[in-house]
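Sharing in case it's useful to others searching the archive later.

Someone asked me privately for the predicted structure of ArsR-family transcriptional regulator, so I'm posting the question and my answer publicly. Question first, with the sequence:
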Amino acid sequence: MVDVHDPRRLRALAHPLRMSLLAALRTDGPSTASRLAGRLGESSGSTSYHLRQLAGAGFVEEVEGEGTGRERWWRALHRSTRWDEAELTAQPGGRELADDLVGRIVAQQRRMLAAHAAERDGLDDGWRAATSLNDAGLRLTPEHTRELAAELLAVLERWRETRESPDQPLVHVLVDLFPLEAYPL
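And my answer, the predicted C-alpha cells:
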C-alpha cells in the first residue's frame, strides 16, 4: 500500500483509463502496453501514454530486463493506494479531486460486485460456499474507525504474505468503512 500526500500524484489516477491500467497491472501482474490495449479495448499508443503518466506519478514502473526492442513491460509498484481525505480537501482543488476519485472507486466496486453476481452461478460448490458478501454497522468514533481500518488492512497484508497462492484465482476483498446518517432502504 502506498500513502499519497501529493494531489498531483492523485490527479494521475483521476482518469478512467489510468485507473483501469493500474487495476489490470495490480490484479494480473506485469504486462505490455499492447497487451493492456487489447484487454481494455484501447489503442496501444493510448495505453503507452497513460502508462508513462502513471510512471511519472510513481504508481507503475518499467520492468527491467523484460521485453525486446519497442516492447516495454510495466508493473504496478503497490497493491493499493490510500490518501488522507482531510489533508487532500484542504488543498486547492482537493475537494473536487477527492469527489472524482471516490466516485470512480465506488463505480469500480459496483462493477466488480455486478460481475460477481453475474458469474456466481458458474462457480463450483467450493467457491460458492467460500464466497462472502457481508455488511455490518458499528457505532464507532473516528479514532476507532481508523483503528479498525488499520487492523483489517493488516489482516489482508498478513494473508497476502503467508497464504497467497499464485496458481489460484484472485479473490477480491473490498474494505470500505464510512459513516451514514441513515441506512439507505
